[in-house]
Each structure stands twice: as structure tokens, then as C-alpha cells.
């Protein structure tokens, strides 16, 4: 059990800027705000959370595609955060990414062969033309694409096949870590299973390590060994996959699990839903104390509002929860109460929506002006 | 007698120089008052086109042909002219779309968009309309509704926008509501809120609901009867429990086996359906699902499989169905 990736207190804060002539920084969107996690070599870490919780930013910051504003990422003993650009580029060969939408992440004007060769060329590996061809042919076989695919363009493939091309592009350099950001959410149900199975097989054959980022808890359960749940830029719970699904301890995880529809009428009729009130608060102005206290049905006076809970071990050694009252809730000593849905964007914080936009444009265009 | 009775609905799109596409091919189903009927299928199976045709939202010219009958309480919605349809739409039949941001007007405040319906169909004006709009937003669970009325769609979160859209749809207490993937663009916790709201509406007002979705989990929790569509045809229809526990069509069986489930552990391999939705056989040449089917026999090719109706109205189009009692 060696750790391939160690993330320590990672922070990614995007500045919110205002002004015409001088850019004043008026606040920060705390997309990722103090995350610690480790990914064991050859295993899958599943990261779940709803939109805007910072899971994608965390994945990108881990690969240094979005520079973190604080904290440390250690990959195989090498601290990436302080690595000079040239060496970082060399390291990138060992960590690749699979994107959500295969259509927009593949260049429509490159055929599959050039898509797969580009990475090899950029890193100056794969040898001469014939050797490169051999590497590419092997990769195509691994992802289950036919040889004739090489001369075709992305639009000639179906969604599932396009995602296979995306996977092949990540595999061709022989990486150790693959960050998969919503690898199946753009695909049809009957195709999702094909891609999930493919990712599983590749891990068995090549000993890959995955960080799978997804909002679909059922998909994550199927491929992950460890699952981390994020809420507003921080991990609220982390445990072995079976553990977290059998005994979710954090109120947010409980609500999330109870909200996922299961394709089984009897289960659906019996289950008790925990309905959360309101929406996700703005990451530019997160609630004080526990980030979840504004929507938590178990929130207790003063402590939840005043003190930010740290991740602590409860139950089994690998189960970490960031909740002051987790034991009391589990034992049934605390009962849920109703929560008034609160306004998420009051007028004095009208910047919140723009902050969301700023977050997105900052992701696309890190150096450019924001807002 | 169902409230809405759709019989043999077909929609074809013809364009000069291109192959004619038959998006919906003889779809029949009925919806009773207070009932939730699901139309389930993957992208391109014709579920959205079916709903657009019923709502009269498909352009009548430009190579679009619509055949069949959609009998809504004595009126054939497919034969109603555009002017009469405008009176029915929003008042008797309303629709909720998938993406709330693109179905709300971005430059008009929410309040104006909600009161528009009230003015058009219920003749309400000024103070009274505003008051009713506030009550509607309150009913769908939007906090501080009076202030929200003055805001624009971009100032609302995705869940709130979908609520506003539902408020507009139920403003005139329609007898039939069509929800086209109402929660696909939303997060799970918000999805749970919206589904609960829709269930309440059906329960309290006896509205008939057509639920269009690709999510079998949503179907299991919401629908009374389910129609599974593939390549423009209903390939299986049944009450909710028989469909999930005794599916007969191999496509339905395959879908149920391939969906990752929250209550199944790591290491349970998924059983995907081979190929993709592109590998279809044209219906006149046999079963469209045959190229991807594990139970294919020679009889599948040649002519389209007839609809077999079994016990309790459980219907399926298959010559070699999944045996009864087989675990899905």
C-alpha cells in the first residue's frame, strides 16, 4: 500500500475583480478550501458532490492545470506545487485526464491517429513512426476500438466510442494516474455500463490509479475503493466505498444517498427521503462554522454555526467525518428538525452569481480579466 | 375513458436531399386523470418528439408530417388549428421543459412571465395577478416570492428556475401536465425536491402527468404505468412493478441490468447492452433492437414484431421475450 498522490491542505481561491481602470479584488471564490486526501497506488478514489462543490477544480488543481493558491500536492514523492515548469511537464506524462464531454474535448479537425500521436510527439516518446504506430495499435486494442478508426474523425463515432478515444488518448503515454472528470455522465444509460466496465478492466490490466470525479453516486460506488464527499470546497466525509454507502455518517452524505433514485419500485416506496431545504450557498460567501449548517436538518445551536468541524476518524479507521454530532446522530440521540429554505443570493451579495461566472471564466482563461 | 388517448402517433421529418426520418412510429398510450405515465428511453428514441407533437409545438410545414390521433377529452389535439391550440396550451395542457434557463426569457422578470399566463388564460390584471403569482411561487416552494417576482432568471439558481417554470405550468390548474426530463439538469438533492413537488401536485389536484425521462430510478419512484420507447416505437408497456420485476422485452431487461445501482457493491460487474443506439434496423425490416439483442432469433428479421398483450395489459413487441420469472 503505497500512496501515489498526497494532497495536503489544498486551496484554490479565484479572485473576484471589480472596476474598469484598476482591477480591485473584492473577494474570493473559495472553490477548494483546505482539502487533504491520499490516493493509494492501483486503487480508485471517487470524488462526489453536487455542481459547484469544487470537485472538478480539485481534480484540475491536482494535475496543476489550475494553479493552487495554497497547500501541497505530492505525486509519487515529488512535490508538484513547487516543481519548475519543465520538470512538471515531464511529470505530466505520468498523469493524464479524461474529460466529461468527448465531443468538445476532441479536436474535430484531427483524425484519431493525430489525436493519439500528439501526446507522444509532445513528450518526445514512442520512437519513430513505426514504433509509434505499434504503441497506438496496442492502445486501440486496449480500449476496444477497431484499427480502421485511425483514419476517421471524431464526428464519425457514437458517444460511447468517442469516450473510448478520449480514454485512448489518456492511455497512450502509459500514465500511472488518470483523473477522470465525469467520464460517463454525457453518455446514454446502456453505454455508461460499457465505459465503466472498460475503466475497470484497464485498471486490472495496467495497474492504473484513478481519481474519478462524478455526481452520480451509483457510478462512483461501482468503480471506487474509497469515496470522498465534497460540499462547498471541502471534504465532509471519506470512507471505504462499501462503508460510506452502508453507514453514511455526515448529514449531507445521508441526504445525498437518500436522494438518489433507485430503479426498484419496492425500494422507492419504502425509503425515507431526507429532503434538503434550499440551494447550495455561494462559495464566495460560505456560511460560517460548518458549511452545511444552513441546510442541515440536525444542526444544533451555536456550535455548528461557530466552529468549523475538522475531519476526524469515527468507527472504522478509514472512515473520516467532518461533523460535530456524527456519533449522536448515528446513535439516534439527535432527531432531525425542519429547516426553512433560506435565500441564497440576497441583494447585497449580488456578486454571488457573477462569482459563479467568474469561476467558470477563470477556469477557461486563467490569466484573463474576470467579470 | 382516459383523459388523453394517443393512438398511432407518427412523426416524420423529410428534407430534400436527405433520408426521411421517422422519429415516432405508431406510438399509442393513454393517460387517466391523476395518473403518472412514464415515457422512457435513450436519446433519439422519440420521447421528446412525442410530447412536442401532442403539445402542437412541431412546425406544421417544412416536411414535418404528423399522423394519428391525440384525443384529449374529446378534442383531437393533432387536428386543432394553431389559434385554438393557443387557448388549450397553458390552460388545459401545460409543459415543463428540461433546461429552465433556455425556456425562460432572460430579459423579462420572472413576475411578468408568470403573470403573462394568468392574464392570457384567466383574464387577471394588475394587483390581482401579482397576488396570484406570489401565491403560485410560494406554492412551489420559492422563498420570499414577492421579491423573486421582480428578479430575472439569471438571478435564480437552477432549482429555483425549475420551480418558477413549474409555477407557470400549474398557474391555470391544467388537467394534463407534460414534464420533459424535468430534473436532468439538476443536482440529486434538488431533483428530490422537484420530484416531491410534482408528486404533491398530482396528489392534490388530480392532474394527469406524462413524465418523460431516461432515468429508471425516477420512473420507479414516480410512475404508475411505463412505456419504454426504442427507435420511435413503444417496445414495452406495463404497470410499474411488472415492468421492473418481470420485464419481457430484452431491451428493458438489458437496461435494468446495465444501470449502476446505489445498493449494489463494488466489484459487481455491469452488463452493458452491446453496440450503440446508432445500430438500428429500420422497423419495416424487423425488430430495430435485433442488432444489439442477445436473444435474437431468425424470426426477428423480416417483419416488425407484433405487439403481444399479456396478463394485466402488459404489452411487448418481441418474438423471443425474456422468460417470465427471470431475474432482471
From TrEMBL, chain A:
Among the record's GO biological process terms, what is one?
peptide transport
Q: One Pfam match, by short name?
A: ABC_tran
> Which InterPro entries is this protein grouped with?
AAA+_ATPase, ABC_transp_ATP-bind, ABC_transporter-like_ATP-bd, ABC_transporter-like_CS, Oligopep_ABC_C, P-loop_NTPase
Q: What residues does the ABC transporter domain cover?
A: 5-257
MF annotations from Gene Ontology: ATP binding; ATP hydrolysis activity
What keywords are annotated for this sequence in UniProt? Answer: ATP-binding, Nucleotide-binding, Transport
Tell me which family the UniProt entry assigns to this protein. Belongs to the ABC transporter superfamily.
The name of this protein is Dipeptide/oligopeptide/nickel ABC transporter ATP-binding protein
UniProtKB/TrEMBL annotation, chain B:
Q: A Gene Ontology CC term for this entry?
A: plasma membrane
Primary location class: membrane
SMART domains in the cross-refs: AAA (SM00382)
| CDD domains to which the protein is assigned, alphabetical | ABC_NikE_OppD_transporters
Q: How does it sit in the membrane?
A: Peripheral membrane protein
Q: Which GO terms describe its molecular function?
A: ATP binding; ATP hydrolysis activity
Q: Which UniProt keywords apply?
A: ATP-binding, Cell membrane, Membrane, Nucleotide-binding, Transport
- Residue intervals of the ABC transporter domain: 6-256
Q: Say which family it is in.
A: Belongs to the ABC transporter superfamily.
The protein in question is named Dipeptide/oligopeptide/nickel ABC transporter ATP-binding protein
Organism from which the protein derives: Spirilliplanes yamanashiensis
